[in-house]
Amino acid sequence: MAKKQILSSQQSESMTTDIVKFDNYLKRFTYKEQIGPLNFTIRKNKVTIIIGRSGSGKSVILNSIMGSYARYKGTIDIAGYRRKSRNGYKVNNEIGFYTQMDFINYDITLRTYLNQIAKVMGLTKEFSEFQIQQLLDLFQLNEHSEKKLKDFSWGMKNRLNLIISLLKDPNLIILDEPGANLDSLWRKKIKEILLEYKNNDKTVIIVVHNIDEVFDIVDDIILIEQGQIIYKSELKDLKLYLRSRLFFKTDIAKHPSYNEFKKQLLESGFEIFEEDLESKTLEIGVLKEEAHKINFLVAMIIKFNMFLEEIINVPMNFESIYNSLVFSENLKELEFYVKRISPISRVRLRSLLRTSKHKIKNQIKNSSSAEFVEEKRRLLLENKMLIKNLMRKKYDSKNVNILNNILEKHFHNSKPLNTTEMDLLKNTLKEMLSQNLLCKYEAKIIKLGLEVALRQTKNEKAFSAFESLLKMNSGNPKNLKVTHVSKNLIKNNPIIQDHKNQLFW
To answer: How many domains does the chain have?
Structure first.
């Protein structure tokens, strides 16, 4: 048998379209801090962008692909190699990695340094000389080839880092914030270079905070939050909003036609993301493909006799994309809707809701505002229901049965689900995901249902998960324990919101 790593025929087949595959990947740092479990693929010959807040797990994913982490659960397959196998190191020949390095102490010329790096990479003299010259010309550093690295500007250092990542002419290029410390001209140039590499059948993975400057070349997008993938899709399937923040000179709180202005904004296809009457600001958005509607905005401001201080375009970062997804009807990964809760946190949440009852009752007793009292009574009733469900949740038997029937058709029939069945599946999932709490049994069937709805998955692993669901006893108290809490509940319930860090993070 060949010494190249051994993959099953099914895995080998998937590698013809996917160059990277994470399967049940889990990296644990402490009892509370972990990344995963992650299950996703990177398509070959495409540009994939990974975006998330600081500390969300982006760097862990990159370092795991690079082989910097060896201790984790699950598997990573790259270009036909299993990363943790005996021959996993061989895939390094296929990978180029960009990260920011400072050469402040390098008392060596650029060309000498690149020649040394080429030797370390094991490149032949003929190939390295050709590649070095090509890249020096491409990044306009040839005239500085005899200059010492310690005298380089930040922009030149970044261009050098990009040269290093491309020196092997790799098939998989990984870039961590490639536009940092580069001016707008070079950011545009980098985008053109990456597009050319993509057109030459290379795969590119980019980690950025703002995607504005690479948006035009991206094929797939992965959103990661707190160690979980919350959304993965082709970028063309994502409805993105171009957002702007309006700073008014007019006191909008007192303006007689302000509410009518907002009404017409919504009717014209705009969304309102944030409003602050005190600071006289309004954050709005319009779908990227309907950017021409910005002209209507200016016309409406004039029509209602309102005056602007300035308009600032909001960067297309994680928050912007996340908000676009909130307003989107598309289904997302389970982790987008809910936060997993540990047994300890479940007990703490129940205790918190119980002790808050007396505080809310006192607030109702001491308030003279009918609106305030009504809101607190609603909160009191909601908390009472939450306490009851945290003790022993009654699962949504009606929708669970619908999901079971659809999944059975999906896994046991050779024909794919028809349009009516797929619509029923999606609507049932949306209804179940609107719940405040999910028990273990519900979470498992929803996760599998989402996998089918999003990707029509019908592999052995998914079938095995379905068989295991059928064997689960829905009346078993263990399966009715609450395991997930709605993110909307965390955001909208003031008691939970005030204590969310102690409860969930």
So the answer is: 3
457: which 2 tokens?
A: 């998955």
Q: Single out the residue of 180, 221, 166 nearest to residue 46, CA to CA.
A: 221
Give the CA count within 13 Å in the CB-facing half-sphere of 215.
Answer: 15
Same domain, residue pair 298 and 352:
no
Res. 371: pLDDT tops 90: no
Both 168 and 33 in one domain: the answer is: yes
Among 228, 233, 167, 178, which Cα is nearest to 205's? Answer: 178
Span 385-441, pLDDT tens digits: 888 888 877 778 889 899 999 999 998 888 888 999 999 999 999 999 999 999 888
Q: Are residues 353 and 421 located together in one domain of the fold?
A: yes
pLDDT single digits (tens) 264-276: 989 888 988 888 9
One domain, residues 466 and 444 = yes
Using DSSP bridges, classify how beta strands 95-98 and 172-176 pair: parallel, antiparallel or unpaired: parallel
> How far, CA to CA in Å, does 311 sit from each of 7, 245, 293, 307, 314?
55, 6, 15, 11, 10
Stated pTM of the model = 0.79
Q: Is 2 a residue whose pLDDT tops 60?
A: no
253, 224: one domain: no
**Average pLDDT, stretch 26-51?**
88
Angstrom distance (rounded) from CA 395 to CA 440: 9
pLDDT of residue 503: 72
Query: Who contacts 143 (Cβ-Cβ below 8 Å, separation ≥6)?
Result: none
**Residue 437 · residue 386 · CB < 8 Å:** yes
- Domain of 374 in residue numbering reads as 331-505
Residue reference for tokens 């049994």: 441
- Residues 201, 165 contacting (CB under 8 angstroms): no
- Indicate whether 144 belongs to any domain: no
Report the half-sphere exposure of 184 (CA within 13 A, side-chain side): 1
User: What pLDDT is stored for residue 505 in this prediction?
Assistant: 58
CA 240-196-81 angle, to 5 degrees, is 90
**Terminal CA-to-CA distance of the chain, rounded, Å?**
48
For residues 193 and 302, membership in a common domain is answered with no
Q: Which amino acid is at 6?
A: I
The answer to whether residues 243 and 85 touch, using CB atoms and an 8 Å cutoff, is: no
Question: If DSSP codes are grouped into helix, strand and coil, which group holds residue 466?
Answer: helix
What is the CATH classification number for the domain harbouring 58? Answer: 3.40.50.300
pLDDT band at 4 (very low <50, low <70, confident <90, very high): very low
Instruction: Determine the 3-state secondary structure of 70 from DSSP.
Output: coil
Whether pLDDT at 321 is above 70:
yes
Residue 130 lies in a domain: no
Residues 163 and 70 in one domain: yes
Measured distance CA(402)–CA(393) in Å, rounded: 19
* Lowest mean pLDDT across 144-153, 280-289, 468-477: 468-477
